Amino acid sequence: MNRAEPIENLLLNLADNLGNRPMLLELGVLAALTALSWLLMNLLRKRADGARAENRLIHLSPPEWSRLALPAGLLPMLLVGRAVLEHWQAVHLLNLALPLIGSFFAIQAVLHLLRRVFKPGRTLLSLQRGVSWLVMGGAVLHITGYLDAVIAALDGIGFHVGDQHLSLYTGLVGLLSLGALITLALWIAKVVESRLATAMPGNINLRMALAKMTRGLLILLAILIALPLVGIDITVLSVFGGALGVGLGLGLQKIAANYVSGFSLLLDQSIRIGDIVAVGQYHGEITRIATRYTVIRSLDGSENIIPNDTLITSAVVNHTLANRDNQLVLPVQVAYGTNLDAAKRVMLEALAKAGNSLREPPPQVQLSGFGDNGIHLDLVFWIDRPESSQRRLRSDINWAIWEGFQREEIEIPFPQRVVHLAGAAGHLPSRPGEAR
Q1: Which of 201, 209, 239, 300 is deepest in the core (most CB within 10 A)?
Q2: Domain count within the chain
Q3: Does the model's pTM come out above 0.70?
Q4: For residue 285, what are the β-bridge partners?
Q5: Which of 386, 381, 383 shows the shortest CA–CA distance to 365?
Q6: Is the dihedral of CA 370, 371, 375, 377 positive or negative?
Q7: For position 202, what pLDDT does the model report?
Q8: Are 285 and 240 in contact (CB under 8 A)?
Q9: Can you give the CATH number for the domain in which 383 is found?
């Protein structure tokens, strides 16, 4: 619109024609198109409800259908109706209805997308409020006729960089475009990840690797699309890419190594989420494999963040790589002269009372050796849940063994020393430390 032209206020145009016969005809057309859109959207919703959930990209509840599908179907009908009706009369009501319904649809669509991408919390609430106020503000400016004037004022505050003009308006458009495209990319990445989960339910590492690569490529594509929208030539990124390459070669090589190692761990299947591993002094269950680090949750509940490069270059003991069954050995010492058959029976009964061992291979009580103070027995058994608290399991078994030994009067020896007198009571030892 030329700035010299008067401002076209849609509200004033509508107020000047209230009660006229053309206005009543517009109202009838608007009501009819709304009813037709409602019937069509209800028919589509019933068909969508009959489809399988895994074949739908967008899951809409009945209220969401009303907020999204109804204005989505009504908007094109209004555009066609206005184009036909304006050949015979003024269409002030339809001119006002289009931006109102369009802004309502835009707000609901963006809010639906945000709820699919971000978790509930303050961040999501702030984004929803910001989008709502921004779209409503733009609709109000358009209806009152001041939108072009505001855009011109924002575009006038800026500066030139070579042949490019950077202003508040181009910056605002760039931020909004980048945010919208990245949000869309994250939503598509989640859809792809859910499809991969259905297609590869047992291969979690490969699924995560493909999901992370898809997310990264989509975000990069969103940035490359958003930059030209504000007039930034993407060829200047070649300079940034060269500087980034130098930075990676000098100071960021360790970080780059961790990222590459993260994808290697996800692809080679040597370490998976849920595995019980030991890396140096750290032992526990892998709960997360990120692009830069891996989280190992110890049996005491603490979480250890290990760089991925460490898992590639160090020796890793994976207790559940091929089989989740793990062997545990519980040592017990009994006094000489003990009925070993009774001790064996008590130890096996204590294990059965705990109830966490596997029947195959069967548990055993092995005589591992003869010590200075007693006989060494080992209770050997297998468990299929190494991620559970082994400390508590050992404690339960030891309690049961102690109670059984007390009942059977089986003695657990303690260190003893026999002293032989070499001479008279007053004889002094010939060497330091020799017993008298």
Answers
A1: 209
A2: 3
A3: no
A4: 276, 297
A5: 381
A6: negative
A7: 59
A8: no
A9: 3.30.70.100
